């Protein structure tokens, strides 16, 4: 089936007819128009793949001014239109001027049919790439909006959080590298996104890399990309995260989990602001703002020779410490209310508040999983509650067993695999200071399956 919608605008009727006769054989639809003043209406009702536009509409004027005027008009109406200009009086200068003004190509009258066809076919290809690009950009903008929405509200009125807000305000606009420190679930990614959103790079990509989840062998290809055939699985050329983040922000999460050899590779890329795809000799310059996060004690790790000091000094121009939830009790009611509203709406439940005793209970608990844990606890309570006020018993920070089990004791009179699993996870987590990556490794689980279990057991 023939495809492609082409509009030809020229005041020479013979030329229009001849063009149609020839082009009809190759394209799906050829519309002709003598009068350019009708262009705005035409474009309102139809979308064309290519517009072939004459430069001169009055016999005696050869300056091309009219063509340029209508070119501007078309691009004003549809910035992604592909316009090919035609003129009998073309010159190299005019061609250059036309391209600069936004035309995609240029043909001269009288044209050879085959040449015209070739020009239109490549203009069609350009149009579909432009459309695809526009769609991708729209999709990305929408995804960013969704994510931003999800990560929008940073809640907190405790002095510690006010200090965090103050730092964000002061450093967001600069290009300074930021290191965000804090336990799991304290909002490190949330803060990284807020820094990006409030920076000059806000309309460029924010790209996350979870360094705790990348294997040694995939590190370089994930971060720097690869060329086709660089290794067995490299079926196509692929850009790495550094390249995709170009112009924007690269968020390296769990940087404390990086092995020393990989730290060296990362340092080189950050220092030189240049990368090479695996399998390629081409050096690519990258302009990124770097935000790193970890829950590991990087300074202690430097002392022990587990983390490179020079890398630390590269990434910690500004340091942000996110307090654990138990260190800012005053934020617990605020956060809990926020999530209550959110989940009551999501699950269509008429629950509007916490009883006082519930708030007290929430304030007493230690929240090893911090805000993420609170979020899940409220979600579960909203789902389970039959009342419209949440009560302490709607919150159980284990599977609802006796308090002794909550402390981590296994009751051997009552073999229950879930209890054992819950207690084991809790112990391993405590042993690893809440570090999910390490705990998952020790338990022989992936990070995401550990997260699933944490959620399941309300840990
Ligand atoms: N101050 C806050 N206000 C509102 N929501 C928050 C706050 N802090 C964290 N959250 C929420 O808690 C969840 C966990 O936050 P986030 O993923 O940013 O934490 P993290 O420190 O990066 O965790 P991890 O170290 O496990 O990757 C998210 O849903 C986030 O929106």
UniProtKB/TrEMBL annotation:
Domain of life: Bacteria
SUPFAM superfamilies: CheY-like (SSF52172), Homeodomain-like (SSF46689), P-loop containing nucleoside triphosphate hydrolases (SSF52540)
Taxonomic placement: Bacteria, Pseudomonadati, Bacteroidota, Cytophagia, Cytophagales
Keywords: ATP-binding, DNA-binding, Nucleotide-binding, Phosphoprotein, Transcription, Transcription regulation
Response regulatory domain sequence ranges: 5-124
Cross-referenced InterPro entries: AAA+_ATPase, AAA_lid_NorR, CheY-like_superfamily, Homeodomain-like_sf, HTH_Fis, P-loop_NTPase, Sig_transdc_resp-reg_receiver, Sigma_54_int
Protein name: DNA-binding transcriptional response regulator, NtrC family, contains REC, AAA-type ATPase, and a Fis-type DNA-binding domains
Signal peptide: none
GO molecular function, one term: ATP binding
Transmembrane spans: none
GO annotation (BP), single: regulation of DNA-templated transcription
PANTHER family: ALGINATE BIOSYNTHESIS TRANSCRIPTIONAL REGULATORY PROTEIN ALGB, TRANSCRIPTIONAL REGULATORY PROTEIN
Residue ranges of domain Sigma-54 factor interaction in the record: 154-383
Residues with 4-aspartylphosphate modification: 54
């Amino acid at each position: 089936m023939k495809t492609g919608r082409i509009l030809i605008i020229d005041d020479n009727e013979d030329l229009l007819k001849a063009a149609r006769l020839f082009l009809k054989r190759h394209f799906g639809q050829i519309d002709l128009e003598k009068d350019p003043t009708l262009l705005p209406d035409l474009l309102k009702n139809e979308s064309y793949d290519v517009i072939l536009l004459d430069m001169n509409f009055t016999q005696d004027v050869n300056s091309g001014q009219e063509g340029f005027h209508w070119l501007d008009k078309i691009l004003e109406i549809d910035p992604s239109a592909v316009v090919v200009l035609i003129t009998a009086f073309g010159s190299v200068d005019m061609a250059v001027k036309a391209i600069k003004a936004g035309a995609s190509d240029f043909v001269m009258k009288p044209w050879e049919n085959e040449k015209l066809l070739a020009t239109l076919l490549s203009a069609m290809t350009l149009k579909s790439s432009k459309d695809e690009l526009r769609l991708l950009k729209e999709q990305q903008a929408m995804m960013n909006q969704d994510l931003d929405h999800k990560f929008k509200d940073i809640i907190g009125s405790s002095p510690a959080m006010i200090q965090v807000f103050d730092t964000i305000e002061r450093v967001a606009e600069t290009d300074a590298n930021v290191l965000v420190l804090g336990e799991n679930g304290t909002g490190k990614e949330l803060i990284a996104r807020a820094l990006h959103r409030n920076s000059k790079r806000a309309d460029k990509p924010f790209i996350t890399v979870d360094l705790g989840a990348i294997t040694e062998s995939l590190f370089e290809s994930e971060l720097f990309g690869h060329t086709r055939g660089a290794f067995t699985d490299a079926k196509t050329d692929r850009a790495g995260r550094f390249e995709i983040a170009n112009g924007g922000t690269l968020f390296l999460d769990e940087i404390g989990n990086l092995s020393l050899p990989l730290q060296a590779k990362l340092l080189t890329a950050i220092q030189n602001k240049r990368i090479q795809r695996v399998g390629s000799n081409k050096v690519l310059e990258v302009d990124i703002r770097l935000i790193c996060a970890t829950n590991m004690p990087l300074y202690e790790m430097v002392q022990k020779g587990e983390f490179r000091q020079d890398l630390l000094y590269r990434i910690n121009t500004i340091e942000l410490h996110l307090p654990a939830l138990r260190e800012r009790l005053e934020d617990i009611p605020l956060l809990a209310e926020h999530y209550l509203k959110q989940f009551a709406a999501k699950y269509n439940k008429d629950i509007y508040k916490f009883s006082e005793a519930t708030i007290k209970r929430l304030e007493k608990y230690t929240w090893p999983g911090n805000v993420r844990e609170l979020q899940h606890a409220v979600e579960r309570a909203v789902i389970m509650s039959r009342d419209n006020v949440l009560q302490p018993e709607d919150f159980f920070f284990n599977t609802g067993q006796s308090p002794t089990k909550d402390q981590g004791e296994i009751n051997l009179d009552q073999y229950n695999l879930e209890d054992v699993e819950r207690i084991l996870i809790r112990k391993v987590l405590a042993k690893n200071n809440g570090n999910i990556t390490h705990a998952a490794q020790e338990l022989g689980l992936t990070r995401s399956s550990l997260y699933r279990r944490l959620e399941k057991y309300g840990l």
